[in-house]
Each structure stands twice: as structure tokens, then as C-alpha cells.
Design a protein that fits this description.
The chain contains 12 helices and 13 strands. It is of the alpha+beta class and 430 residues long. It folds into 2 domains: 278 residues, Beta-lactamase (3-Layer(aba) Sandwich); 143 residues, Beta-lactamase, CATH 3.40.710.10. The chain starts with a helix and ends with a helix.
């Protein structure tokens, strides 16, 4: 059975309970080989530090760290260091949405306007260009379109968006990532109202565009549960999963555990005596309680702050061995079925995510699945997703291995999860 829901929450898909015998793995050699991938980043002062946690079937295989989470404070990264994970927030918002599906409180086929009337009559600027004739949406934007990033919404040009509409997002400072511009604080409702005033970049359901769709999901969840999104997530998702250090708005007593965000040096030379290739970013000042993207509200798409330890608990649940969330098995069964995003065209993510998407067909939801190569039927069971600030996770269907990599650098320059996964594969007989 092919169902759109498998596209939407891919994090649940194709996951088997592969049991590990960690005693058969030479962990010291595995750590050595993993460090050969990671330590050059700190040795060359490309990043200030990192933390990597590697699990198999819910058991810790390795925890590796190097450098600092804050250079000046010499904060050593650990499994309890707090990181802003940006788009790694989305999988948890998807999980909350599926939970409400299961409870019958939201339907995937509900029009978004049922909960957010601002989106009753959206206009469409084809391709995001104001040169095109604005036309009315042919059909309603649905909740399932938000989950699959097929709503017609986009991101600003300094994230993944292109065209006039994406530039308008940037001009209005809608989730702006321009470190030279202080993002204006707003309520979630004000944020949604801004989005509703702009045209869509495609007809709802027609195209994949990586977007602010998950912010609309958090607004819908607020309407349905009649309480702030962050409070609902804390009680209904974080607490049952044992995620005790996950926050949209950081408590004052936790500010000392925050990793500092850095930015790569733009200079082509180094100042004598300061060999670092990064500098503190002013995008996420650590003295702000609302840490994630400088938002005063909880964004379902971007603003979670959490630890590597907490995120592994989430992955453990996804792999079928964690805490119970009272989600109907019918919904979990749906998302466990084989499904790709081919309905939206070959390499559907290219426009939104750049040239790295050119050579492979991918599914999106909680992560990306490499489905097949252009020249063959080779299927990959490696799934991952990342955040704009250089955090990432991956999990492997066949082996049951999951990894969480944490550092803080924007823009992201060093993607290493595929290399780490390749190293691990050599030790688990894949």
C-alpha cells in the first residue's frame, strides 16, 4: 500500500529491530577510525569542537568528543551539552502530528484553513516569481501537504528558497539567517499572519519545496490542544521519551550548558596568533533565553535546543524499541510501508536543497532516504537529516545503528555523517 504518509514521516520507515553484539566490535579501533574523520576538523581549527554518540539497538557503542563547545569558557562537549538543532526539530513535530492523527483530533486531509483561516484563499506566484501572473490556488492546502513540504510555502533566500517570494521572506525577516540582521521577535500567530500575506510558490500538492510548513503544523497543534506548542511537546513527547533536556525556550538555569554558535571566517588570511578558522556568530547570542533562531515563540520547524543524549532517545523510539507514546499501530504500520517521493519527480529536492541532491532520488520526512541511483536499482537503507547549525543524525535500517553528531557552525561547511556511517559499516559486517 502506497500512502503519502510514508513520505511525510520517513523517520519511521523501514526500521527493523536489529540486535547488536557490541562485544564483537573492536571499539578502540572503531573510535580511532571515526576520529580520523572528525579530528582534522578540530586540529585545523575549522570547528571549535564536536560530540558524537553512536548507538546500536538502543545501547551506547561510543561517545567521542574533542575541543570545546565554547572556546572562551572552555566548555567541554558532552552528551548533555545543549545544541540548537534547527531543522532536526521537524521530525519531532511530525511525531506530534501523527500522534494527533492517531487520536482523531486532526486528519491528514483537513484543510489548513480549518485551523488557520488566514490560508483560506492563497494566491500562487508560479516558481516564486512575481513576473508570473498570480493565480488562485486550485485546491486547498492540506495538513498532509505541510508534512510533505508540498504546501507551496518556501524558505527565505538565505536558507533554501529561491525567487521573489523567498526574497520577500528575507525582507520581512521571516526566519532570517542573516547574522547582520537581528530577527524581529514575534508571536507564533504574528509569524503565521506574515506568511499568509505572501503568495505560494506552487499549487498545493504539486511540488516539493523545503519550507516553513512545519511552523504551520506547530500553529495547528496549538489550536487543537488549546495550549502553547512547547508545553504540549514537553508533556506529550519529551517526557514520555525521557528527553529531559529538550527546550524551545531555555530555562535560565540551563543557559550555562549552551554550546556557542560560530561562523566560518570569511577572510582569506589568518590574523597572526589566532589560527582559528571560525569566529563567534551574532546570530544566536547565548544570553538570550529564546535561543533557537532568536524566536520568541516555539517553531515546529527550527527552534528546538536539545542534547545528543536526548536525541538518541528519540531515535531509539523510532527504531521500535523505546518508550510508548500511545500512537495507534495503524498509523505506525502506515509509515512502515515502502514509499518514495517519486510522485514529485526525480531528484525532487534539488531545487530546495541544492546540487547535492542532483545525483539521487530521495524521500523526505524525518530524514532523507537514498532510494535509488540514476543507473540502477541499488536501494540504500541509510537515513539522515541535519540542522543548519551543523548538527546531524543518521540511522541504518539493516544494522540498527544510530548516530548523533553535534557541533555549532553556520553556515554548515562540513557534512560528515555519510563518512561516519561508512566507517561503522566496516565494523558491523555490512
Amino acid at each position: 500500500m502506497r500512502d503519502w504518509l510514508c513520505i511525510a514521516i520517513m523517520a519511521f520507515c523501514f526500521i527493523f529491530d536489529a540486535r547488536a553484539d557490541s562485544g564483537s566490535i573492536d571499539l578502540s579501533k572503531l573510535e580511532r577510525d571515526l576520529r580520523e574523520v572528525l579530528d582534522p576538523l578540530t586540529d585545523q581549527r575549522l570547528i571549535p569542537g564536536y560530540f558524537l554518540t553512536l548507538h546500536r539497538s538502543g545501547e551506547t557503542l561510543l561517545e567521542i568528543s574533542e575541543g570545546f563547545a565554547d572556546d572562551e569558557l572552555q566548555l567541554v562537549p558532552s552528551k548533555q551539552t545543549l545544541y540548537s538543532i534547527a531543522s532536526m526539530t521537524k521530525p519531532l513535530t511530525a511525531l506530534a502530528t501523527v500522534k494527533l492523527f492517531s487520536e482523531g483530533r486532526i486528519s491528514p486531509d483537513d484543510p489548513v484553513s480549518k485551523y488557520l483561516p488566514q490560508f483560506s484563499n492563497p494566491l500562487v506566484a508560479f516558481g516564486g516569481s512575481y513576473d508570473s501572473q498570480l493565480e488562485a490556488a486550485r485546491s486547498p492546502m492540506l495538513v498532509k501537504h505541510l508534512l510533505t513540504h508540498t504546501s507551496g510555502l518556501t524558505y527565505s533566500t538565505d536558507i533554501t528558497g529561491v525567487g521573489d517570494v523567498a526574497q520577500a521572506y528575507k525582507d520581512l525577516k521571516i526566519l532570517s539567517l542573516d547574522s547582520n540582521v537581528q530577527t524581529e521577535l514575534a508571536t507564533l500567530e504574528e509569524h503565521i499572519n506574515q506568511l499568509a500575506e505572501l503568495p505560494l510558490v506552487s499549487q498545493p500538492g504539486d511540488e516539493f519545496n523545503y519550507s516553513v510548513s512545519y511552523d504551520l503544523l506547530s500553529a495547528i497543534i496549538e489550536k487543537v490542544v488549546e495550549e502553547p506548542f512547547d508545553k504540549y511537546m514537553a508533556r506529550e513527547i519529551f517526557e514520555p521519551l525521557g528527553m529531559r533536556n529538550s527546550y524551545f525556550l531555555i530555562p535560565d538555569e540551563k543557559l550555562g550548558s549552551l554550546s556557542t554558535l560560530y561562523a566560518p571566517l570569511i577572510r582569506t588570511f589568518q590574523i597572526p596568533g589566532t589560527p582559528k578558522m571560525y569566529q563567534k556568530s551574532n546570530l544566536l547570542p547565548t544570553n538570550m533565553k529564546n535561543f533557537g533562531l532568536q524566536l520568541a515563540f516555539a517553531s515546529g520547524g527550527t527552534s528546538l535546543v536539545t542534547t545528543a543524549e536526548d536525541y538518541q532517545k528519540f531515535l531509539y523510539f523510532l527504531m521500535g524499541s523505546g518508550a510508548e507514546l500511545k500512537i495507534s499501530q495503524d498509523y505506525l504500520d502506515l509509515v512502515l510501508q515502502d514509499q518514495t517521493a517519486s510522485d514529485y519527480g526525480y531528484s525532487m529536492m534539488t531545487k530546495s536543497l541544492g546540487r547535492q541532491a542532483d545525483q539521487m532520488s530521495m524521500s523526505f520526512g524525518l530524514g532523507i532516504q537514498y532510494e535509488e541511483q540514476p543507473d540502477g536499482d541499488i536501494a540504500y537503507d541509510y537515513h539522515f537529516w541535519s540542522g543548519a547549525f551543523n548538527t546531524a543524525f543518521w540511522f541504518d535500517v539493516e544494522t540498527g545503528v544510530s548516530g548523533v553528531f553535534m557541533t555549532q557552525l553556520f553556515p554548515t561547511r562540513y557534512t560528515v555523517t555519510d563518512k561516519l556511517d561508512s566507517v561503522v559499516d566496516q565494523y558491523i559486517g555490512k
